[in-house]
Design brief:
The protein is mainly alpha-helical. It has two domains: 120 residues, no CATH class; 62 residues, no CATH class. It contains seven helices and no strands. The longest helix is centred in the middle third of the chain and has 28 residues.
Protein backbone atom coordinates (compact mmCIF):
# COMPACT_ATOMS: atom_id res chain seq x y z
CA UNK A 1 0.00 0.00 0.00
CA UNK A 2 1.48 3.41 -0.91
CA UNK A 3 2.69 5.76 1.83
CA UNK A 4 0.01 8.43 1.34
CA UNK A 5 -2.81 5.88 1.20
CA UNK A 6 -1.62 4.12 4.33
CA UNK A 7 -1.21 7.43 6.20
CA UNK A 8 -4.69 8.56 5.10
CA UNK A 9 -6.14 5.24 6.26
CA UNK A 10 -4.50 5.65 9.67
CA UNK A 11 -5.63 9.25 9.97
CA UNK A 12 -9.17 8.30 9.02
CA UNK A 13 -9.35 5.45 11.53
CA UNK A 14 -7.92 7.70 14.26
CA UNK A 15 -10.40 10.45 13.44
CA UNK A 16 -13.28 7.97 13.58
CA UNK A 17 -12.13 6.59 16.95
CA UNK A 18 -11.61 10.03 18.43
CA UNK A 19 -14.94 11.33 17.07
CA UNK A 20 -16.68 8.35 18.64
CA UNK A 21 -15.10 9.20 21.99
CA UNK A 22 -16.09 12.84 21.62
CA UNK A 23 -19.70 11.84 20.97
CA UNK A 24 -19.55 9.47 23.95
CA UNK A 25 -18.24 12.31 26.12
CA UNK A 26 -21.08 14.58 24.97
CA UNK A 27 -23.70 11.92 25.59
CA UNK A 28 -22.49 10.68 28.99
CA UNK A 29 -20.93 13.85 30.41
CA UNK A 30 -17.83 11.85 31.40
CA UNK A 31 -14.43 13.25 30.47
CA UNK A 32 -12.11 11.28 28.24
CA UNK A 33 -8.77 10.33 29.86
CA UNK A 34 -6.39 11.69 27.23
CA UNK A 35 -3.35 10.10 28.92
CA UNK A 36 -4.94 6.72 28.21
CA UNK A 37 -6.33 7.48 24.77
CA UNK A 38 -3.29 9.02 23.07
CA UNK A 39 -0.87 6.09 23.49
CA UNK A 40 -3.60 3.65 22.47
CA UNK A 41 -4.09 5.62 19.23
CA UNK A 42 -0.36 5.81 18.47
CA UNK A 43 0.16 2.12 19.25
CA UNK A 44 -2.88 1.14 17.21
CA UNK A 45 -1.61 3.12 14.24
CA UNK A 46 1.78 1.41 14.56
CA UNK A 47 0.08 -2.00 14.42
CA UNK A 48 -2.09 -0.89 11.48
CA UNK A 49 0.93 0.30 9.52
CA UNK A 50 2.87 -2.87 10.31
CA UNK A 51 0.01 -5.08 9.18
CA UNK A 52 -0.77 -3.13 5.99
CA UNK A 53 2.69 -1.99 4.90
CA UNK A 54 4.51 -3.80 2.12
CA UNK A 55 7.97 -3.66 3.69
CA UNK A 56 10.06 -6.58 4.93
CA UNK A 57 8.16 -8.84 7.32
CA UNK A 58 10.79 -8.83 10.10
CA UNK A 59 10.94 -5.04 10.23
CA UNK A 60 7.15 -4.64 10.11
CA UNK A 61 6.74 -7.27 12.81
CA UNK A 62 9.28 -5.56 15.07
CA UNK A 63 7.72 -2.11 14.75
CA UNK A 64 4.20 -3.49 15.14
CA UNK A 65 5.11 -5.33 18.33
CA UNK A 66 7.05 -2.39 19.74
CA UNK A 67 4.48 0.31 19.00
CA UNK A 68 1.50 -1.89 19.85
CA UNK A 69 2.87 -3.10 23.17
CA UNK A 70 4.02 0.42 24.09
CA UNK A 71 0.57 1.88 23.40
CA UNK A 72 -1.32 -0.93 25.12
CA UNK A 73 0.96 -0.81 28.16
CA UNK A 74 0.59 2.96 28.60
CA UNK A 75 -3.18 2.85 28.09
CA UNK A 76 -3.55 0.07 30.65
CA UNK A 77 -1.14 1.85 32.99
CA UNK A 78 -3.30 4.96 32.80
CA UNK A 79 -6.39 2.96 33.72
CA UNK A 80 -4.60 1.23 36.62
CA UNK A 81 -3.28 4.55 37.91
CA UNK A 82 -6.79 5.95 37.90
CA UNK A 83 -8.07 2.85 39.76
CA UNK A 84 -5.23 2.90 42.33
CA UNK A 85 -5.54 6.62 43.04
CA UNK A 86 -9.23 7.60 43.21
CA UNK A 87 -8.28 11.24 43.79
CA UNK A 88 -6.98 11.34 40.19
CA UNK A 89 -10.36 10.29 38.78
CA UNK A 90 -11.55 13.81 38.19
CA UNK A 91 -12.92 13.52 34.69
CA UNK A 92 -13.21 16.87 33.07
CA UNK A 93 -15.06 17.43 29.87
CA UNK A 94 -12.56 18.07 27.12
CA UNK A 95 -13.17 21.00 24.77
CA UNK A 96 -14.04 19.98 21.22
CA UNK A 97 -10.73 21.28 19.78
CA UNK A 98 -8.76 18.70 21.85
CA UNK A 99 -10.03 15.80 19.75
CA UNK A 100 -8.80 16.85 16.29
CA UNK A 101 -5.49 17.93 17.83
CA UNK A 102 -5.22 14.49 19.46
CA UNK A 103 -5.89 12.81 16.12
CA UNK A 104 -3.21 14.81 14.28
CA UNK A 105 -0.70 14.36 17.13
CA UNK A 106 -1.21 10.58 17.10
CA UNK A 107 -0.82 10.48 13.31
CA UNK A 108 2.41 12.49 13.48
CA UNK A 109 3.82 10.41 16.35
CA UNK A 110 3.18 7.22 14.38
CA UNK A 111 5.07 8.34 11.27
CA UNK A 112 8.23 6.37 12.25
CA UNK A 113 6.15 3.17 12.22
CA UNK A 114 4.69 4.14 8.85
CA UNK A 115 8.13 4.66 7.30
CA UNK A 116 9.54 1.46 8.79
CA UNK A 117 6.56 -0.57 7.56
CA UNK A 118 7.35 0.40 3.97
CA UNK A 119 11.10 -0.38 4.07
CA UNK A 120 11.62 -3.47 1.91
CA UNK A 121 15.24 -4.19 2.85
CA UNK A 122 15.13 -7.72 4.33
CA UNK A 123 18.16 -7.23 6.59
CA UNK A 124 18.11 -5.22 9.81
CA UNK A 125 21.02 -2.80 10.00
CA UNK A 126 23.26 -2.45 13.08
CA UNK A 127 21.52 0.87 13.82
CA UNK A 128 18.12 -0.84 13.78
CA UNK A 129 19.36 -3.66 16.01
CA UNK A 130 20.79 -1.09 18.45
CA UNK A 131 17.48 0.77 18.40
CA UNK A 132 15.65 -2.49 19.19
CA UNK A 133 17.95 -3.12 22.16
CA UNK A 134 17.43 0.47 23.37
CA UNK A 135 13.68 0.04 23.04
CA UNK A 136 13.77 -3.14 25.16
CA UNK A 137 15.76 -1.29 27.87
CA UNK A 138 13.36 1.67 27.76
CA UNK A 139 10.22 -0.48 27.79
CA UNK A 140 11.49 -2.64 30.63
CA UNK A 141 12.62 0.36 32.66
CA UNK A 142 9.39 2.28 32.15
CA UNK A 143 7.27 -0.75 33.02
CA UNK A 144 9.32 -1.35 36.16
CA UNK A 145 9.14 2.31 37.24
CA UNK A 146 5.39 2.48 36.66
CA UNK A 147 4.75 -0.73 38.61
CA UNK A 148 6.85 0.61 41.48
CA UNK A 149 4.88 3.86 41.48
CA UNK A 150 1.56 2.00 41.36
CA UNK A 151 2.56 -0.10 44.36
CA UNK A 152 3.54 3.09 46.18
CA UNK A 153 0.37 5.11 45.48
CA UNK A 154 -1.89 2.13 46.22
CA UNK A 155 -1.04 2.47 49.93
CA UNK A 156 -3.34 4.97 51.65
CA UNK A 157 -0.58 6.28 53.92
CA UNK A 158 1.36 7.43 50.84
CA UNK A 159 -1.44 9.72 49.65
CA UNK A 160 0.05 12.92 48.22
CA UNK A 161 3.66 11.84 48.79
CA UNK A 162 6.15 11.59 45.93
CA UNK A 163 7.35 8.07 45.13
CA UNK A 164 10.97 7.48 46.13
CA UNK A 165 11.02 3.68 45.94
CA UNK A 166 13.02 1.61 43.46
CA UNK A 167 14.02 3.52 40.34
CA UNK A 168 12.29 6.61 41.70
CA UNK A 169 15.15 6.95 44.24
CA UNK A 170 17.40 7.98 41.38
CA UNK A 171 15.08 10.29 39.49
CA UNK A 172 11.76 11.96 40.25
CA UNK A 173 10.81 11.32 36.61
CA UNK A 174 12.08 7.74 36.23
CA UNK A 175 9.25 6.75 33.90
CA UNK A 176 9.92 9.71 31.61
CA UNK A 177 13.62 8.91 31.39
CA UNK A 178 12.80 5.46 30.04
CA UNK A 179 10.02 6.87 27.84
CA UNK A 180 12.66 9.14 26.29
CA UNK A 181 14.83 6.11 25.57
CA UNK A 182 11.86 4.46 23.81
CA UNK A 183 11.28 7.51 21.60
CA UNK A 184 14.97 7.85 20.74
CA UNK A 185 14.94 4.18 19.75
CA UNK A 186 11.87 4.67 17.60
Amino acid sequence: MPLVTLFALGLGISAAAVATLWFWQQRTGAGVPIATLWPALVGGLGVLYASQGDGAWMRRSAIGWMMGSWGARLAIQGLYTRAANPASNVDTMRPAWVFPVLTVAAAIASIPALLVSLNQDPELSPVELTACAMWVVGFTGETTADRQRLRFIAKPDHDGLPCRAGLWRYSPVADRVFEGIIWVAT
